[in-house]
């Protein structure tokens, strides 16, 4: 391991556990003398979380690898994105946010390949859980959920302000069971992703291990293209399906302004596993996150200063009716915008 190598942390957790919010908090409290970067992957193709992270505007470098799991196809999209980010930005610390439906162990295997030995070293992996999910077998028994727990160096109960005593007792039981095989496991209980950056200094339990594999790609190789609309497009639909989940999302022209109140009403009426969006509205650029009947919002800035297309994505355990959803979100476009039908 070189003194100049990049320290890499996985911030993992199932859908809706608050990974992006936690990363935002960590970035805002990073040491002033360190340069941090973020590689973010989402299950869908649209890239809402990356847009939210880019809204920081404080020099933090963000790179997106949209569409499914970072480790798919032998990790090629992941390695391309990471190599390019490291070569161009030369960060001291790299945070990787895998999709909530990704297998983090496979990502760690790539990071520990011999070809990266002098380029980076893996720091502590942080796994976020929502204690309210621990009583639900569809989370607790899911293979991906189990993988995320298995790689944790720091296990974090997020959204504890929404939990009852039974939820927190279930978290305590989980910690006790994991410590049988992971006695060095560190834990934290937080709200709103407010994780102490000091917990990142916990040693990665497998950092001394390396796995044989191919050498890293040349760090200047960059075959990816940013997701943008063509000049004649007002919107574009994108789809993803894997691990029993379905996603449909839209990249929408920045010429349109949405009615924030109409968006809220529409999201509250949805029956989906997850909905998230970054939209220019009559109340400014807002990030919406709808999960388990609860809607949260984050103000990102003035709508006239938006530097990216509007983005909307829905995820569910059943196939989504794209036509009716398209009609519904178009009805939320404000009257002062160019007609959605154009």
Quick summary:
With 342 residues, this protein is α/β, with parallel strands linked by helices. It has helices at 19-28, 48-54, 76-89, 104-111, 137-140, 143-150, 165-179, 260-268, 322-330, and strands at 6-13, 36-42, 61-66, 93-97, 120-122, 126-129, 154-157, 186-189, 235-242, 245-252, 274-281, 284-291, 294-301, 310-316. The longest helix is centred in the middle third of the chain and has 15 residues, at 165-179.
Q: Major sheet: size, sense and barrel closure?
A: 8 strands, parallel
Which CATH C-level class of the largest domain is it? Alpha Beta
| Name of the CATH homologous superfamily of the largest domain | P-loop containing nucleotide triphosphate hydrolases
Shape label: globular
Overall radius of gyration: 20 Å
N-to-C series of helices and strands? EHEHEHEHEEHHEHEEEHEEEEH
> What's the average pLDDT?
81
Task: Please tally the helical runs, counting DSSP H or I stretches of 4 or more residues.
Answer: 9
The tally of domains stands at 2
How much strand content do the residues show?
Answer: 25-35%
Indicate the low-confidence ranges by residue numbers: 208-225
The quaternary state of the protein chains shown equals single chain
